[in-house]
Amino acid sequence: MGQKVNPVAFRLGGTQNWKSRWFTTKRYQEFLKEDYLIRDFLTTKLTKAGVDKIEIERSANFLSVIIVAARPGLIIGRGGSGVEDLKKEIKSLLARKLKKAVKMDLRLTIEEVKDAEIRASIVAQGIAEQIEKRLPFRRVLKQTIERVAQSRDVQGVKIMMGGRLDGNEIARHEWLRKGRIPLQTLRADIDYAQVTAFTTYGTVGIKVWIYKKEEVVKKKEEKR
Question: How many of the other CB atoms lie within 10 Å of CB of 71?
Fold first, then answer.
């Protein structure tokens, strides 16, 4: 039986970087819970903004949250009012869940995604929206793969769906691939995302793999 591993976790430290950049031994559990609450809240609230990833950095005095989205204008709002509202909501959420006041300085940075059409998380969110509107899943699969594969930076794309597709009584998996997806090559830059679509007949799991390029690590020759 094949052993499955997350393509992003498999390449951490190589082609992929950590989404939480901090480390501590004394407050590890507390910080981990805070990161989970922040990501879960922002992912749920900013569904229409096309969030690609949420990165968190910490220091002794401040907490920095970096939101990378396809439509940053929906987050920033008029005159930056949306950012200030988000800060207040995050602080109140942490205070309510952790049952203590948040004293550290919270900083929000909004960045725009230039190549949103080939980001796995944004592509998966778009598929989920179409499935929730009851569009035929095979048409969604084919149209999405053709649109992503048109980019010159993409060498391969694979999409998998699982659940009661089109409302069938028996759940099953369907997938479609175009190009190469070298999952066992550590140098391969593979963007991966997993999203759940909530429909009237149950949930549909969506997985997207996008293979962009292969990172070539050049070793410096030692001078004798």
Answer: 16
Which pLDDT score, from 0 to 100, does residue 218 have?
46
Q: Is 99 exposed, middle or buried (0-12, 13-18, 19+ CB in 10 A)?
A: exposed
DSSP 44: H
How far is the C-alpha of 22 from the C-alpha of 177, rounded, in Å? 37
pTM (two decimals): 0.86
Residue 123 · residue 195 · CB < 8 Å: no
Q: What is the DSSP string of 145-201?
A: HHHHHTSTT-SEEEEEEEESGGG-SS-EEEEEEEE---TT-TTEEEEEEEEEEEETT
Task: Classify domain 116-214 at the CATH topology level.
Answer: Ribosomal protein S3 C-terminal domain (3.30.1140)
Largest CA distance in the chain: 70
Candidates 3.40.50.1000, 3.40.710.10, 3.60.21.10, 3.30.300.20; CATH matching 20-112 = 3.30.300.20
Helix axes 81-98, 28-45, angle to 10 degrees: 130
Q: Which residues of the chain have pLDDT under 50?
A: 218-224
